[in-house]
Design brief:
1 helix; alpha+beta; 3-stranded antiparallel β-sheet
Amino acid sequence: MSTHYISAEMDLQDTPLKVQELIESELTKHGEALRWAITQVDEETQKLTLEAIVIKEEV
């Protein structure tokens, strides 16, 4: 088991619930999230930046 830092850019969604679902979906691709944060929102491009620490099982 090891920890990894990830950063992802994704489109803003219509509602906070959709944003949360998108974030959870993205984090699941990388492992189990220990913590995450939206670190930037660009209103012009309608993008947000997500940073997280995840645990990944080593194979």
